[in-house]
Amino acid sequence: xxxxxxxxxxxxxxxxxxxxxxxxxxxxxxxxxxxxxxxxxxxxxxxxxxxxxxxxxxxxxxxxxxxxxxxxxxxxxxxxxxxxxxxxxxxxxxxxxxxxxxxxxxxxxxxxxxxxxxxxxxxxxxxxxxxxxxxxxxxxxxxxxxxxxxxxxxxxxxxxxxxxxxxxxxxxxxxxxxxxxxxxxxxxxxxxxxxxxxxxxxxxxxxxxxxxxxxxxxxxxxxxxxxxxxxxxxxxxxxxxxxxxxxxxxxxxxxxxxxxxxxxxxxxxxxxxxxxxxxxxxxxxxxxxxxxxxxxxxxxxx
Length: 302
Description:
By secondary structure, the protein is an alpha/beta fold. The protein has helices at 13-25, 38-41, 47-53, 64-73, 95-104, 120-132, 142-145, 155-164, 186-196, 212-221, 239-245, 248-251, 265-269, 279-293, and strands at 28-33, 76-82, 84-86, 90-93, 109-113, 137-139, 168-171, 202-205, 225-228, 254-255. The protein has one domain (13-293): TIM Barrel (Alpha-Beta Barrel). The protein is 41% helix and 14% strand. Helix 9 runs parallel beside helix 10.
């Protein structure tokens, strides 16, 4: 990294195949991470997060190699890079930038697309286009839009996710940024979406705290609802989540994530042995569930 400090810190048809090959042999897949742009880091929404982490804002763009190095330090083989878009033209991490990083490291990254909720048809077309280029899912952060997932603007996107066979990835639980947390309630919002779209695969990031029991209940209830552990280190997992991970249902329902660069991979994984997971449950958590949920072994279309 040339200056500043952070915490630990093309056509894309080949990316899905290469990512799948790497995922089969690498130890860990991170399903929620960002490579931060300066626009992302300088956003007012991150002021409170910078206070927690003590991270300063660099003066120049951070090279993608810095993110790869952080993954290497924790033996994370594959990361799903999230694009970020918010209302009023907040293009914090663009789909084009994610596509460029994936093209540069197709064996280390796959992309999660973002869209503009205020332009519903344009959003559907953008999602369709990005999936055709190799993106493996859609991510929308409800608090950024002050709109829970039951808002009518999401529903055309849910239909497109089902038709394209990609997951909808979102945030549950309270917000770290100084924004209302209500949009992150698993009940009623995730529960209702899963009832309306039973075929939709929903990956709920950030555990759902302080409503973790609600999140576990919704994941138990709905076949296609999953939890990812981004924004929490292993040692901060709520007890109810760890208990769930040790059940037959929970073993296949929880995926590893970091929310990098807010939490470094080495920090996120410290204490993994203390969870007391079986070898099979540990493998599913770190890699197997992500491979299955995001269809990382899917055949590349000709």
